[in-house]
Amino acid sequence: MIATAALALLLLQVLVPWSDGELDIHHISTGRGNATLFVLPDGTSLLVDAGARPASPGFPEAPSRPSDARRPGEWIARYIARTLPEPKLDYVLVTHFHDDHMGGLADVVSALEIDKLLDRGWPDYDYPRPLDFERVRAYRRVAEKLDVEAFEPGSNDQIVLKRRPYPKFEIQNLTANGVYWSGQGDETREQFPALDTLADEDYPSENMSSLSFRLRYGAFDYYTGGDLTGIPNVGHPDWQNMEKAIADAFGPVDVHVVNHHGSIDSASPEFLAALKPRVHIIPAHSATHPAPSVLKRLLSERAYEGPRDVFILQFREPTKAAIGPRANQVKSGAGHVIVRVAPGGGSYRVFVVSDADESGTVLAEHGPYRSQ
Ligand SMILES: [Zn+2]
Question: Which CATH number applies to 23-370?
Answer without folding.
Answer: 3.60.15.10
